[in-house]
Amino acid sequence: MLALDELIQKDDHVVDIDGIKIAYEPGLERYMQDSMVDYARIKGYFVKVRRGLRC
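Structure (tokenized):
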């Protein structure tokens, strides 16, 4: 399951996009490819993956 967290673990993969760091665990590359981090006032931040699932 994908979830948002403020802590970056030492084995996480980290991508920096325009100064925003996105960290994810090894093995989640297939889920992160073509994913989008979005924000909604009511829900806060969420990750929308390619298959339309939200976390």
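Residues 13-48 form one domain. The mean pLDDT is 80.
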